[in-house]
Amino acid sequence: MPQFKIHHVTRYTYEVPVRESANQIILFPVKDEYQTVLKQDLFITGEPVVDIYKDYYGNEVGSFTFADAHTELKIDSKIEVVTKARPLPVDSTPKEEQWDSLQAVKYQVPFIDFLKQESCEAVDEIKRDTHVGQYLQVTPLTAAQKLNEYVFRQFQYIKGVTSVETTPDEIWKLKAGVCQDFAHILLVMLRMTGIPARYVSGYVCPNRNGMRGEGATHAWVESYIPNYGWLGLDPTNNCFVNDLHVRLAVGRNFSDCSPVKGTYKGTSNHNLEVGVSVSYEDGHINDDQGTILTVQPSTNGEQKGDENSYRRYMEMIQQQQ
Fold this sequence. Notes:
It contains 9 helices and 16 strands. By secondary structure, it is of the alpha+beta class. It has 2 domains: about 150 residues, Immunoglobulin-like (Sandwich), CATH 2.60.40.2250; about 150 residues, C8orf32 fold (Roll), CATH 3.10.620.30. The strands form 3 sheets. Strands 1, 2, 3, 4, 5, 13, 14, 15 and 16 form a 9-stranded antiparallel sheet that branches. A 5-stranded antiparallel sheet has the order 11-10-9-8-12. The radius of gyration is 20 Å and the shape is globular. It comes from Niastella koreensis.
């Protein structure tokens, strides 16, 4: 069972003191039979009390407020986690029975959100170009695997051509992006075939395997397979998700899984630095993707909501991927 040490640092610095910083963090790995958190140390500037609760999708979410004037806000998470390989589905049930099973869960609460299509005007074009009918002639597992491979083969992995606001329509036209974009377009494809699909945020931690997105925050998809449950698919690397991926959160899309977002009162002139590093049992440190990145937003007065933390954070994370 692989054991990883993950160090994830987010640091905001302000040119003049700001105050009343209220933030939400989703930096707590999923805890289940396939993922055990041995230890987590969380340091936040000012040592505020962090209220931890479960959101609608079962993610652990922390919220905190730092009211005092400050020129830096640092969120430093150190995690030790053990992952366990999970068996892959046995695809022996007749395909007709499996598709009927997916039709039966179509209006059940756990699946409604993950079948609802995001705003995407290109759905008909996607259906035509991917020949969606062929995927309905095989089992849902085979269909999901083929669509995962389609995204990997047809979309180029290029940093910097998309942003946090890039829509599925734009991704489809570009045929390029990073892991977040690959995940979003695969969500569209799976949902259009009637397979429930959800966005997953986390880390990919291969030991010298050279996978895309290693040593940084990563994104992939889980599809619901009858008689099995949620199966992880990584279209960025064309693989099933298993014990080299560490899961943080699930949701309809990336906005449900943002690692850090919040508001504060004060100047909008601030720097954001994000760094992620992963070390392994053998002591090897993967920091190829863990370099610190810095941005200087423009001045536009008091900054709140996604303009403060969420958007800038996700833009930096995309550059890491």
